[in-house]
């Protein structure tokens, strides 16, 4: 795949390229600026510290994430979860939390992981990685 495309052009992708962007392994993401140039580095926003961990929650519970000063975090719902988990602020429920299916993930720009709460529907767990 070329590193430069016009803003109005979406390049054709091979099956292999397509699977790298959001398919089977989910390991690769390509980011382009408005001019179609691939962004390969993030300058001063490159993390200097990475954190990671796991949060588990009993059925019907609300569990606060641990305290970690960060700028961003990605949270992944465990494949072994029996059902959807819900994330949100304090007071989150299955009715107002953000739903995350087993194996799916979501990213947040947030200053501390302790601002995130996990709502469990069954015995559930999520793993997270973040940085600053």
Shape-level CATH architecture of the largest domain: Sandwich
- Protein structure class: mainly beta
At the first level of CATH, what is the class of the largest domain? Mainly Beta
Query: Which parts are unreliable, with pLDDT below 50 for 5 consecutive residues or more?
Result: 1-11, 13-26
- The pLDDT mean sits at 77
Tell me about the largest β-sheet. 4 strands, antiparallel
Element-by-element helix/strand order: HEEEEEEEEEE
Number of helical segments with 4 or more residues: 1
Into which percentage range does the β-strand content fall? 25-35%
Q: Which SSEs are present, and which pair or pack?
A:
Layout: H1 15-22, E1 31-32, E2 38-39, E3 50-57, E4 62-64, E5 72-77, E6 85-88, E7 98-100, E8 105-109, E9 117-119, E10 124-131
Antiparallel strand pairs: 1-2, 3-10, 4-9, 5-8, 5-10, 6-7, 6-9
Describe it.
The chain has one helix at residues 15-22, and strands at residues 31-32, 38-39, 50-57, 62-64, 72-77, 85-88, 98-100, 105-109, 117-119, 124-131. It has 132 residues and is mainly beta. The strands form 3 sheets. It has a 4-stranded antiparallel sheet, with no helix packed on it. A 4-stranded antiparallel sheet has the order 4-9-6-7, with no helix packed on it. Helices cover 6% and strands 33% of the residues. The protein has 2 domains: 1-40, no CATH class; 45-131, Sandwich (Jelly Rolls), CATH 2.60.120.10.
């Amino acid at each position: 795949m070329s590193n430069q495309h016009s803003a109005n052009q979406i390049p054709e992708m091979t099956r292999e390229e397509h699977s790298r962007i959001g398919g089977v392994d989910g390991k690769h993401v390509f980011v382009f600026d408005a001019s179609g140039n691939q962004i390969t580095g993030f300058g001063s926003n490159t993390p200097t510290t990475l954190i990671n961990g796991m949060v588990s929650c009993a059925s019907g519970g609300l569990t606060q994430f641990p305290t970690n000063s960060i700028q961003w975090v990605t949270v992944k719902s465990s494949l072994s979860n029996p059902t959807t988990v819900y994330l949100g602020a304090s007071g989150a429920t299955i009715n107002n939390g953000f739903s995350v299916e087993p194996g799916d993930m979501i990213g947040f720009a947030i200053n501390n992981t302790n601002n995130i709460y996990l709502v469990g529907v069954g015995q559930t767990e999520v793993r997270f990685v973040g940085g600053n």
